[in-house]
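Hi V.,

You were right to ask for the full record rather than a summary. Here it is.
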Amino acid sequence: MDKKNVLFICVHNSARSQMAEAWLNHMCGNLFEAESAGLEAGTLNPLAVEVMKEVGLDISHKKTQQVFDLVKAGKIYTYVITVCDEASAERCPIFPGMHKRLHWSFPDPATVTGTPEEQLEKVREIRDGIRSAVERFCIEERATVS
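Predicted structure:
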């Protein structure tokens, strides 16, 4: 069976989409091949890197990329999933051959405030929310394959 291609998109490809990509490839890599991109290229969020390392997933080597470069390259995805706020999600391009577009709204880790430990805790909550969404997605997809 061929893997379904999934693209996760957020604003800068610095945290949410990177975490979602890592979770999907980790939990359902037998069904999916995930990538991530941003509306604009950013830099990897160190808080996202740290909280993912806490759960054994190293995203420190990942590079950020722009979604429009993937559109220009003619990439085809079965699912395009936005993980940013609704207004930003509306700016996402339409991909050729796309079958399904989903939106999962998560807070932006770049906007968390507080002490360093409070910031880490808030980003852990975002990480765990993304994990839960990816788990539900995997369960639903496995049910359609069975």
